[in-house]
Request: fold
Amino acid sequence: MKADNRTTTEVTAVLHNIATAYAKRDITALLANFAPDPDVLMYGTGPDEKRVGQAEIQAQAKRDWAQSEAAAIKHETVSVSAAGSVAWAAVDGAFEVKVDGQEMAVPARITYTLEKRGDKWLIVQAHFSVPMAGQEEGESFPT
Reply:
């Protein structure tokens, strides 16, 4: 169900906070948007990037930052839906990074699941992915 305006505004603010904290490499601000639960989950784009718990999410962010000169998450098109105290967002965006002096923008697909606790929305699950290389438009599988 499409979220109401208030929920959309609040969830979009969380996504903005995530993007800002990630670009500024502010781990405290980044983690403040994730639930403190031991089973909070984040999937990244790499084969080893399944992170469970805030300590693992923190380790992933620090690894990203150690392997880049700059890194940003751009949320371009955001769709927010909700039911009760749960909301989910589907995002088309990009990862903009600078590695070894080379800047690149990688198309991204991101989903977030959030839970409202008190007056604050917290991410309980995040999934970052990139479109499959070698799969042409109109094709269902890579060739």
